[in-house]
Amino acid sequence: MINIEEFISGVVANAAKELYGIEDSSSLQIQKTRKEFEGDYTVVVFGLLRASRKSPEATATELGEKIVASTPEIKGFNVIKGFLNLSVDTSFWAARFGEIVASENYGMAPATGRTIMIEYSSPNTNKPLHLGHIRNNLLGYSVATILKANGHNVIKVNLVNDRGIHICKSMLAWQLYGNGETPETSGMKGDHLVGKYYVEFDKHYKEQIKELVANGMSEDDAKKQAPIMLQAQEMLRKWEAKDEAVYSLWEKMNGWVYDGFDVTYKALGVDFDKVYYESETYLLGKSLVEEGLQKGVFFRKEDNSVWIDLEKDGLDQKLLLRGDGTSVYMTQDLGTALRRFEDNNLDDMIYVVGNEQNYHFQVLKLVLKKLGYAWSDNIFHLSYGMVELPEGKMKSREGTVVDADDLIADMVGTAREMSDELGKLDGCSEQEAAAISEMVGLGALKYFILKVDPKKTMLFDPRESIDFNGNTGPFIQYTHARIRSILRKAEEAGITTGDYLDAPLLAEEVELIKTLTEYPASVRTAAQQFAPSVIAAYAYDLAKQFNGYYHDHSILKEQHSATRSMRLMLAEQVARVIRSAMSLLGIDVPERM
């Protein structure tokens, strides 16, 4: 397929070379013409004035005349100050439409040979997944899908944080207060059951602190000396020493959590090619620490702890190994990064982690660079903002989070309720209605989260996300279902699209084709920026544009057969691109609604 941006750039560069002898076209600025002006592409001519030795208006006029005379695809131009607006001939857009129809994998790039690993989810095994995890998972999965669409070999991984004091808090609270409760006896998902005891630990911990303070101890000392915290710390020491009873309890309770996580991941429609566990990776970095000491990159303090001084880099001193020889998160991440690059021959490694870890990943890249690993430049932190609710921030240990499973169920239930009210499910069997409600509920959730730029903190409003009008997933899903209904009726009436290229195009049809041609560029941009929001904006614009067109122009009742065929084919391609774009967001679209 012709690359339209490259074609226009080439046309302008050739004209500038012939007129002004300009060999280097890097000074040429070409952009899509703003909607309030006539034209398709705008050339900013100020960079040509030194060579043309003419005014901006004269230069733009001369360039426009040269382009129109030498390029049949450009039918005309207009000049506004130093801006040359070029209008592309309708036949050019008709030819591009034919290319879109003929392309089996429209919008998808050929294989690049690059291998990219993307890590997302990274849950703790002391609580169920919540709304914050949903943004992480949806963002990671969508970026992985978008990178695949750009021709890269993508490896999706999850690093489960299955060890540490927070895990021991849940274990200890279950041991002290659980009375042998299990997922089977309680009827709770395993991750919910373990999360219940994480909250239970915090409740008793606060009670003990309060009691110690009442007896005259300072709050800081009370936090350190609370019996339940001392017990949790002792449990962690026993776990690291592989105490049989503690280790067995850890395996049992983590097993409950993994079973629960799997249910949530399946409901969200996300998956992984490989799962890493912190309990298996936390020691990996120790050899790198020794390597850094030998090279003089790190230094050892009197208490035997190992550090790196990054003050000359505008940062501070960073701990890499505790005095007792135990590792910290940075130790683990150094070792894991090395293992991943070596084992998988990676070109890039992307970490999908919230913006509270910006500093951590800045240090990780810098330390690896100082150790001499050139691939450290190919580590990217996809930093995203937190998800907040109208009531404010969420806190896991206080049990004030929005649980992922509850949210998914509520979204599906609300989708069913609103779809019923609007008559969207009329004529559907119960099975169809349930399937559509699930598709719409999840589509609403995913789209509402992914349409926001990853870097921004977002406010989540469940009811607003299911509105069938406006910038929502259900609006786009309904547009697809509406087009599929038109196509079914055409098939039932025996109407074909065989002569669609013979019809003249209205201005609105040209505009729809232009938008369709922009899909591959949107897929590329989304990958370059790690931003599914680019795809979401594109899908919404296309759906909104089609709805406006369909409101003004009949398809099935059009009398002229070639025009009817063209409009049917145009509708079919819009549906196809909507389906493709939404799939990059991990969203399914219904055939009927």
What would your notes on this structure say?
It is a single chain. This protein has 593 residues and is an alpha/beta fold. The chain has 23 helices and 14 strands. Among the domains are: 4-88, Arginyl tRNA synthetase N-terminal domain (Gyrase A, domain 2, 2-Layer Sandwich), CATH 3.30.1360.70; 164-268, no CATH class; 286-326, no CATH class; 414-584, Isoleucyl-tRNA Synthetase, Domain 1 (Orthogonal Bundle), CATH 1.10.730.10. Helices cover 55% and strands 11% of the residues. A 5-stranded parallel beta sheet has the order 7-6-5-11-12, with helices on both faces. Strands 1-2-4-3 form a 4-stranded antiparallel beta sheet. Helix 20 (507-517) runs parallel beside helix 23 (561-584). The longest helix has 25 residues, at 190-214. The radius of gyration is 30 Å and the shape is globular.
